[in-house]
TrEMBL record:
GO terms for biological process: 4-aminobenzoate biosynthetic process. The keyword Lyase applies. PANTHER family: AMINO-ACID AMINOTRANSFERASE, AMINODEOXYCHORISMATE LYASE. Transmembrane segments: none annotated. Belongs to the class-IV pyridoxal-phosphate-dependent aminotransferase family. This is Aminodeoxychorismate lyase.
Length: 265
């Protein structure tokens, strides 16, 4: 388990009372990022996510601008150059329109893929899917149910039958000539957005289109993408098997990831 190195709330070292205050509020949002040598891939997108979600949940007047947030992240990092950082913006009981901003710094997580998991589809839709919010009960419950059934994780399907997103990841596919992302109501993951930038920069084709479980046998590879790993190949979804090494999909995503620049915090 990763060690927690620092927790600050509103720019001050957190005590037990302030951590309890934030931990017991489930109305808010967060973002997670990997820091290497004091820099982050897609820092601009993480800050934009925090600003946009704050306006959506707390209103236009919330002071969660990028400059302030960037300063809070840098302060919490201190001398740590390599780390995992989670920024949580949570409502305060006494003043819901002045949320707490908690920055937690912990050990860095290697981004190398793990053994390819097998996942199953399940009909499930997150509330406010475009927001990375704190209501994560379903994101924990559904994978546990999948593991009890012999799978490693879950891929969600909307009530309309469309494939959407994984428990804590976006999903990408290879159709034989390009990368394909499901068209559905999903969290626009930072890593997914960066991979699309990289693919475009390299001139590698990709598209977003509706996909259902019936389309799976016709696809050549599948992978999960999130802030921990830009390309985690999937060994299978339901009864459809895919190359455990990700094949051409992994090659395309690795090339796209390699051209994404690092931004100093």
């Amino acid at each position: 388990m990763a060690r927690v190195l620092t927790i600050e709330i509103n720019g001050r070292r957190a005590d037990a009372e302030s951590v309890y205050r934030v931990a017991t509020r489930n109305f808010g949002h967060f973002t997670s990022m990997q820091v290497r040598d004091g820099a982050v891939r897609g820092l601009d997108l993480h800050l934009e996510r925090l600003e946009t979600a704050s306006r959506a949940l707390f209103g236009e007047g919330i002071a969660c601008d990028g400059g302030t947030l960037r300063g809070l992240i840098g302060r919490a990092l201190g001398a740590d150059r390599d780390a995992s950082v989670r920024v949580t913006v949570a409502a305060r009981l006494d003043d819901p329109l002045s949320p707490d901003v908690m920055v937690a710094v912990s050990d860095p997580v290697p981004d190398a893929p793990q053994p390819a998991p097998r996942v199953r589809t399940v009909t499930y839709e997150r509330e406010l899917p475009h927001v990375k919010h704190l209501a994560t009960m379903g994101l924990s419950y559904q994978p546990l149910q999948a593991r009890a059934a012999g799978f490693d994780d879950v891929l969600f399907v909307g009530r309309d039958g469309r494939l959407s997103e994984g428990s804590i990841w976006n999903v990408a596919f290879w159709d034989g000539r390009q990368v394909v992302w499901p068209e559905a109501e999903v969290l626009p993951g930072i890593t997914m957005q960066l991979l699309r930038r990289g693919l475009t920069r390299l001139g590698l084709p990709w598209e977003v289109r509706p996909l259902t479980a019936a389309d799976l046998p016709g696809l050549g590879a599948a992978a999960a993408t999130n802030s921990i790993c830009p390309c985690q190949p999937l060994a299978g979804i339901d009864g459809t098997s895919f190359p455990a090494d990700g094949g051409a999909l992994a090659e395309a995503l690795a090339a796209a990831w390699a051209v994404i620049p690092w931004e100093a915090v």
